[in-house]
Design goal:
Distance between the termini: 77 Å
Radius of gyration: 25 Å
Mean pLDDT: 88
Shape: globular
Number of helices: 5
Low-confidence stretches: 1-22
Largest sheet: 12 strands, antiparallel
Helix content: 10-25%
Length: 219
Amino acid sequence: MKRFWSIACLVFLAAWQISCSKDDPQPEPKPEPVKLNKDSVMFASYFPQYVAEAYRFNGKDSVDIMNEVPLFNTYRNSVSLQFFFTNGYINFWSLSPLANTEFPGTALTFNMQIRTNQPTGLRVAWDEEKETLVVESVSTSSYLPMIIPGKKAYLDPATFKYCRTRQDAQASKVKPKMVFVYDDEDPKLGKVTYKITLKPLYEYYREEYQQTYAKFVVF
C-alpha cells in the first residue's frame, strides 16, 4: 500500500509540473533587430524617390497627411526627391503624372524633367551609432515651404526593401520602399510620430538623344 501511494504521489507531482508548464509558458525570444547594409541603402537611394505616404500618429489615432493637407498631395505629384548620398544633400526633380497605359495593377507613371534639380533644404547622412540613414531639415526651401528646419527622420530598418531593376520591382510581391520616422511635439496634440514612405521611381522610356525628359514608374 505504501508503494502504491508513493507511485501515486510521483504521478501527481509529474502531472502538476506538466500542468504548470502549460499554464506558464516560457516567453518567446524577441526577434533579432534588422541590420541595414550601408551599401544596399546607398544603392537604393540612387533612384529618385516618390513620396508615397505620410502619416501622423498620436496614440492610437492616425491621420493621412495627404488628405489633411491637400497641398502636400499636390507637391508629391510634382516633385521627386534625389538623394546625393556622397555629397550629403537631397534635391528634387520636377515631374507630372501620366496616364498609366504600360503597367498592370496600381503602378503610377510620371514624366520627369531630368536635366536640372533644385535644393530641398534637406541633408542626408549615415548614422554610425544607429546604423541607419538619417535625413535632417536644415533650411526652408523657397520651392518646398512645408519643410521645417531642425527635424530629424531615421530610416526604419525593418521597412527597408530595394530592387536593383525595374523588372525586379515589378515582379516582386513586396515592393521596394523606405519608411522614415521622426517624433515631434505638436502644440495641440502633444507628442506625435510621423512616418513618411518613399518609393523608388524607375525609368522605363526615354526618346533617343533626349536629355531633358524621361518617363518613370513607381510600384
